[in-house]
Design goal:
This protein is of the alpha/beta class and 323 residues long. The protein has 13 helices and ten strands. A ten-stranded parallel sheet has the order 1-2-3-4-5-6-7-8-9-10, with no helix packed on it. Helix 6 links the parallel strand 2 and strand 3. Helix 1 runs parallel beside helix 3 and helix 7 runs parallel beside helix 8. The termini are far apart. 34% of the residues are buried.
């Protein structure tokens, strides 16, 4: 009798732990866990499953990074928002983030299908990552801009084949409140496309133009229109001159600026940055042979209270400071 009672008491304690304690703990830590980690917990127990399914944050993001068959997976997940059953329909009904970075088998046709079948599920989307999705072209961007009215984050990292100025025109026309844009290594872009972004997307806080050597000062000068800009990556901007950089110095809120291998830049441009961007925390001058100790003196006078990282490797005009 005593053994049976003890066993019953233990079972009751385990049940209470599963029904009450685990869900309570999950609600506290769940917001800090990555979506994939949360999904991996679904089969652990029915109580955990029930808690996770009722957690809104689980359904705000779709992460297919590095996954195979990503296009079909995307459409299938978004289609849940069109189900007749309300409990199922509520899932992915208000997706805010879609990550397809390095995803396999994602093409324009999948975005078309998502728009056709799941338009309601895309209305709240704020962020999409298409990094290294080489089969996404201007047509795919056109689909996104027509289906997702609230985007603030758009990333195309390393699309070297299919993204042209047409995509930038579509983004500029549809997203005046865009905050983050990554165009790294999209080599078919020209001054004309970039200028449309700079003229119309005045809310940009982060602009990544890494490894794009085709732009000229005609476009770079217009970066000065971005009053809210905080992050700017111009690594490899071979046509950027001191004149262009002096215009960029009008971006008073810049905290991070990458000028690595901007080979035409000299002390004149860097001194302008030092005097204009006094909140700068990160600055890379890596590989710029035309700068000297003069720009360091200017940075010391204007940015010494904020700057934490200054890369002058390969700057042969800067003398080594003796200890």
């Amino acid at each position: 009798m005593e053994v049976a009672a003890a066993a019953a008491g233990g079972a009751e304690g385990d049940l209470k732990w599963s029904k009450e304690t685990i869900p309570m703990v999950l609600k506290i830590v769940g917001t800090r866990l990555h979506q994939r980690d949360l999904i991996s917990l679904l089969p652990v127990s029915p109580w955990l499953h029930r808690t996770l399914v009722s957690c809104p944050s689980l359904w705000l993001a779709l992460d297919f990074r590095e996954m195979n068959n990503a296009g079909n997976r995307l459409v299938a997940a978004l289609s849940l928002g069109s189900e007749m059953n309300w409990e199922v329909k509520s899932r992915y009904r208000h997706v805010k983030h879609i990550n397809l970075e390095f995803a396999q088998d994602i093409e324009d046709k999948h975005l078309d299908l998502a728009k056709t079948k799941c338009l309601d599920s895309l209305q709240e989307l704020e962020s999409i990552n298409l990094n290294v999705c080489q089969k996404i072209s201007d047509r795919g961007v056109e689909t996104i801009t027509s289906a997702c009215p609230k985007l603030k984050v758009f990333s195309f990292y390393w699309n070297v084949r299919s993204i042209t100025d047409k995509s930038l025109q579509l983004i500029a026309d549809n997203y005046p409140d865009l905050e983050f844009l990554n165009l790294t290594r999209c080599v078919k872009l020209t001054d004309g496309g970039l200028q449309q972004i700079l003229l119309k997307c005045s809310s940009l806080q982060s602009l990544n133009l890494y490894a794009l050597s085709s732009f000229t000062d005609e476009a770079y000068r217009k970066i000065s229109l971005l009053a809210n800009l905080r992050f700017l990556d111009l690594c490899g901007a071979q046509n950027l001159s001191d004149q262009g950089l002096t215009c960029i110095a009008k971006c008073k809120n810049l905290v991070s600026l990458n000028l690595t291998w901007c080979v035409r830049v000299t002390d004149v441009g860097v001194i302008a940055i030092a005097q204009g961007c006094t909140s700068l925390e990160f600055l890379s001058l890596f590989g710029i042979v035309g700068v000297t100790d003069k720009c360091l003196e200017a940075l010391s006078r204007s940015c010494s209270n904020t700057i934490t990282t200054l890369d002058v490797n390969g700057c042969i005009g800067i003398k080594e400071t003796e200890s």
